[in-house]
Design goal:
The chain has eight helices and six strands; from the N terminus they run H-H-E-H-E-H-E-E-H-E-H-E-H-H. It has 194 residues and is an alpha/beta fold. Helix 3 runs parallel beside helix 4. InterPro entries: NAD(P)-bd_dom_sf, Sc_DH/Rdtase_CS, SDR_fam.
């Protein structure tokens, strides 16, 4: 994967299957921060690119949860794209929606564990290094990684179900749950930034 997606870091765990070959351990808090997206139309994605996005964004975080077996709190870094999908993010959005749904189900399976899902919109990080035009288009809606980190730190030890950032995306996600057809229309018409 590194050869194809050189900007990824820490893929050694995934490539070497370290979580499969070692004895599981137990930690108090696990923060799962895996994220990788290719933003192009579905027809332009290869089967391998589709599999890689699901592997990194959905499957590997679940495997890490089994391996590290958090006892106090699990924080899964998903994406607001899992709640508000957009054109050219079909696979990324689907893979993050899978992590959100997993988190919701796991919260029911493990009521003794605090399960928090972080759903951020655009964050000013290396994630968008190849797509600076996108960050310019979303403008002030892009948030800093420091803001995301501060919100996560403030949620440690608290029974917080979700952190949705920025606040505008929270409102849109709630509206989309009520009126999905209208929000899909508006997204295609006015917010197709990728």
């Amino acid at each position: 994967m590194k050869e194809k997606y050189g900007h990824l870091t820490n893929v050694e765990l995934l490539e070497n299957r370290a979580v499969h070959n070692a004895q599981p351990i137990s930690v108090d808090i696990l923060i799962n921060n895996a994220g990788f997206g290719l933003f192009k139309e579905l027809s332009a994605l290869t089967d391998q690119e589709i599999e890689d996005q699901f592997e990194i964004n959905s499957i590997f975080p679940i495997q890490c949860i089994r391996f590290f077996n958090p006892k106090v709190q699990l924080i899964n870094i998903a994406s607001i794209a899992g709640k508000i999908p957009s054109a050219k993010s079909t696979i990324y959005a689907a893979s993050k929606a899978a992590l959100i749904a997993f988190s919701d189900a796991y919260r029911m399976e493990r009521p003794d564990l605090i399960v928090t899902t972080v759903n951020s919109g655009p964050v000013k990080t290396k994630f968008h290094a190849d797509n600076q035009a996108y960050l310019k288009k979303v403008g002030s809606n892009a948030i800093t990684s420091d803001k995301v980190a501060a919100k996560i730190i403030s949620a440690l030890g608290k029974n917080k179900r979700e952190i949705n950032l920025p606040w505008q995306m929270t409102v849109i996600a709630k509206l989309r749950a009520i009126a999905p057809t209208l929000l899909d229309y508006l997204a295609v018409r006015f917010f197709n930034f990728k």
